[in-house]
Amino acid sequence: MTKHLKITAPVAIAALTLSASITLAADMKWDMPMAYSASNYHSENGAQFAKEVTEASGGKLEIVAHPGGSLFKGGEIFRAVRTGQAPIGERLISALGNEDPLFEIDSLPFLATSFADAKKLYDATKPELQKVLASKGLTLLYTVPWPPQGLYTKKPVNSTAEMKGVTFRAYNAATSRLAELMGAVPTKIEAAELSQAFATGAVESMVSSGSTGYDRKLWEHSSHWYNIQAWLPKNMVIVNNDAWAKLDEATQKVIMEKASEAEARGWAKAEELANWYVEELAKNGMTVGPAGDQLKADFAKIGETMTTEWLAKAGDTGKAAVDAYKAQ
Ligand code: PCA
C-alpha cells in the first residue's frame, strides 16, 4: 500500500501539471516571421497585434511575432507564408515585383510622396492588391507605411552624375533600377544585414527612410541624408488561406478586428515618428535636408523613366490602378 502510494503521488502531480499547462496553452499557435528590428515600430506594432489576438481569442489561437528575420529572413517570408511553412508573416510589398508588378506601385517615384497620398494610393489599390494575394492563396491583414525615402551618402551630392560608380544598397527591384539609372552599382541587401554591409564597405549609399537609418545607425557609415521624398513603401501582414480556413469564424473575426486596429495604429505611428527619425540622424552628426535643385531635377527625370517602364510592365491593370488613385 505504502509502495503503491509512493508511485502514484508523483504521477498524479505530473498529470496535474500537464493538464494545467494544456489549459493555459492555446489550441493553435502561429509563428509570425517579421524582417525588421524588434525595436522598429513595424515590429512593435506586429507584436502588439499578436498579443491582442492571443488575448482576445479566448485560448483558441496564440500568435508569436519573430522580428529581425530571426525565423525567416526578409527575402524568404513571402514564400514561407505562400507555401504554408509559416501561417502568417510580414513583408515589404514592393520587394515582390517579380510576383506581380502591382506590388511595386507604392515604390513608383513621386507618385505618392506624403502620408495622405500614400493612404489614398493604398485605398485606391487595395482591392487589386487583395485580388493578387488571393490568386496566390493569401489574405491581406494589414499594411503599414515607411516614412518618405531619402538618399544616404558618404559625401555631399549635388547631382545623380556624382553617384556614378558608387556602390548602392537596394531593397527591391525599383531601388536597383534607380541605382542603375544614376550609374551607381546596386546590390540587394535586407535591412537586417545592412550595418554589416556598410561596415565592410560592400555598399556606401542607399535610398531608405530615416527609420531604417536610425535602426541601423547609418551615421556610423554615412554623412548625408537627402530627403528626396520619393515614395512611401509599405509592409503588409498576410496570412496563408489554408491556415485561415482552420480557424473558426469567431477567431477570424478577432483577427480582422485587431488587424484593422494595427493598421490604423501603424499608419499613425509612422507619421508621428517620421520627423523624429530625421532629427535623430542630425543629432548623431549627419547633414540632413532637402535635395538641391539639380539633384531634384535628376530624380524627377529618373522617376519618369521608371514610371514609363513600370506602366509597360504592369499593363492595363497597372494603368487602371494609377488612374483610380489619381481620380481620388
Ligand atoms: N526601410 C526598409 C524599406 C523601406 C524603408 O524605409 C529598408 O530599408 O529595408
Describe this structure in a few short sentences:
The chain has 328 residues and is α/β, with parallel strands linked by helices. It is built from ten helices and eleven strands.
Write up this protein.
This protein is α/β, with parallel strands linked by helices. The protein has one domain (24-326): D-Maltodextrin-Binding Protein, domain 2 (3-Layer(aba) Sandwich). 50% of the residues lie in helices and 16% in strands. It has helices spanning 2-24, 41-56, 74-82, 115-135, 173-182, 194-199, 210-215, 241-245, 249-283, 293-326; strands at residues 28-33, 61-66, 88-92, 138-145, 150-153, 167-170, 185-188, 205-208, 224-226, 234-240, 287-289. The strands form three sheets. The chain has a six-stranded mixed sheet, sandwiched between helices. Helix 4 (115-135) packs across helix 10 (293-326). The longest helix is centred in the last third of the chain and has 35 residues, at 249-283. It is globular and about 60 Å long. The structure holds pyroglutamic acid. Pyroglutamic acid binds at residues 92, 146, 171, 191, 208-209, 211-212, 233.
Hey, roughly how much beta strand do the residues contain? 15-25%
Average predicted confidence as pLDDT: 93
Helix percent reads: 40-55%
CATH superfamily: Bacterial extracellular solute-binding protein, family 7
CATH architecture classification name: 3-Layer(aba) Sandwich
Tell me the series of helices and strands, N- to C-terminal.
HEHEHEHEEEHEHEHEEHHEH
Shape: globular
Biggest sheet: strands side by side, in what order?
Answer: 7-6-8-5-9-11
Low-confidence stretches: 1-9, 19-23
The largest sheet is: 6 strands, mixed
Classify the secondary structure makeup into a structural class: alpha/beta
Give me the CATH fold name: D-Maltodextrin-Binding Protein, domain 2
Distance between the termini: 83 Å
